[in-house]
Give the backbone structure.
Amino acid sequence: MNTKYAWLGVSALLIISILGACGGTGSDGGGGGLPVTPTGIVPRFAYVANSTDSTVSMYTVNAVTGQLRHNGYVTTGANPVSVSTDPSGKFAYVVNNSGITAYTINTNSGMLKRAATLVSGTGSASVTIDPSGKFAYVANYGSNDISAYSINAVTGALSQIACSGGASSCNGSNFLAGTSPIYITIDPTGKFAYVANYNSHNISAYRIDTDSGALTSAGTSTLMIGTNNPDSISVDPSGQFVYVANWGSNDVSVFTINATTGALTRAGAAIVAGTKPASIIVDPSGKFVYVANWGSNDISVFTINVTSGALTKVGTTNVAAGTSPNSVIIDASGKFAYVANLASDNVSIYSIDAGTGTLTALTTVTGRNGSRAIAMTKGTEAVTYTPKFAYVANSLSNTVSTYAIDANTGALSEVDQNGSAAGTAVATGTSPGSVSVDPSGKFAYVANIGSNTISAYAIDANTGALSEIDQNGSAAGNAIVAGPAPESVTVDPSGRFAYVTNSNNTISAYTIDTVSGALTEIDQNGPLAGTTVSAGVTPRSISIDPSGKFAYVANQGDSSVSAYTINVNTGALTSVGTAIAAGGEFTRSVSIDPLGKFVFAVNHGGFNPGSIAVYGIDAGTGTLTPVSGSPFVSYGGPNSVNIDPTGKFAYVSNSYGSSWVYQISPFGRLTPVDIAATTDEPVSIRVDPSGKFVYTASNSATYIAPGSISGYMIDSLTGSLTAIAGSPFLTGIRPANIAISGSIR
């Protein structure tokens, strides 16, 4: 059976428009005239429904470059096939096997919080929100009807709108459609709804009661002879034309809309698209149509005749996409196109030529398994990342120092975490070797090498100060037991799991209580003895890919990198194969680029030159393949590597008093572009979430005096570094690791 349709056994549309409704934003508000692209409107957050692992990935959108940046994920019901956001950007709705799951959207961070799940009809295929944000409509493929709901403007809760038109138009509380309705779209005025009926090969039209949301039939329109299986439908922003992607006949049908009744009239012959067109969208200007062709792995581009609605193909060939492109959207500004690729588990990003509609491929972002549908919110302000706090684990002081970051200058000021008590740092276990902050910025975790424990702290949102969390209840001590000499701790992008490297060549995994922050160890072996999984020899560092699918471990003892998949439900790790040699000596640190394409592993080198090994990540399996030219030389005993948020630059701290800057090619190759002198022996390096600053934690020359943090400003064009005024900033004795937190708005 075709994998696209495995959830139903037949075809399903999985396209979502920007508004979840009309396939574009910006209109003159009437039924005629030219649409106007909105000014001052920018994209903010994107959401991708991943049908294979039953999650929704969250992204922030760079309004200038169009880049998507991973922002964690949430679990949802089994097999999510559709996601839509309301026009205000406050709510998101996901169709899955359980029905419709509603989420509230944090309008600052874009994070989703589950609100409720309710049952719709049978075999629900897609959900669409009307332009007013008052109503939601669900196409029920299995029961041949449409469920309609009113939306609570405060909570986002759905209340079903009952059909009262009698047996000829109702199926219980639902509104009758054709055979196998797969997608519903709404015109920009919110007066009319149109449904693609996959197996009756026609389009149902409805008038919408703008007060109640109820539907009244406005007739049924057949497709052209020879066309079949309409899989996607979109209305232009002027409300004059309807465009239908026909999966079965590889073409696009065009209809004109009667502005009074909403009835459709065919407008000429269907025009050829690619193979098995699965998704169609009209851009916000109303000048262009884009079609994602599932079978030919490409995008068709058309211009629109604003008088007749007729389409003319742009160029002689279609634009390449990923494997099985299943959903295409245009951002609210009309500058960028995004395509969710079902089989290659990623999102393709394109820039749009405002004059011709031509697409230029920019990059792809790795997603989770089964990237099926994509939706996006809009706003008047671009998303911004702001650095807030820096945390340093001081291994000889047995403390964690906290610093507030000046978001303009990057300067650090130490936070007093003890009030009238002596000192400003907070106590940890013995010999803390690593500190990590969860994605929400609510909790911090410290791996204590000497006491074989993990300490957990709640973070004061205003000051950044840490207060230890009691993880043991009435048991002695607040820290939780880990394996022997745990050296590294990291939190996954969903904020649900934490992972720790142990000196006995194992990895411990923990679930995180998202309310209290406390850890509970995960049994990763079931009935087998022990709860940990095996790593290489002397694991020193662990990093999670930004999608949250894979974990990678740097093993110093055998100079290798271990790779694991992460169970989305339990957090348990499963090895994807034998650890791969890192091509150098003493592999100490591992980092992953923000697009999820490459792993960077630091080889300290001992008495030999150090190096950086770079691997490409297989988006489906997580396996690693060395990139051409790897490993890349880095003299001076490299200890730590970190990648900037754009994925353009890598920063490496070297034992002998320097930090190297590398430019990253699209293929993962490294080219040195700058060397910055640092204080004493830099052991850890981090780029802040805004991408404006780099910080290195360094030991003093004597190892028994306070260490320091060197801070630098990043040149956004070249990646080169300039020292921040007041740098270096003092830490406790022998700092081992640094972590940076920030906020999104």
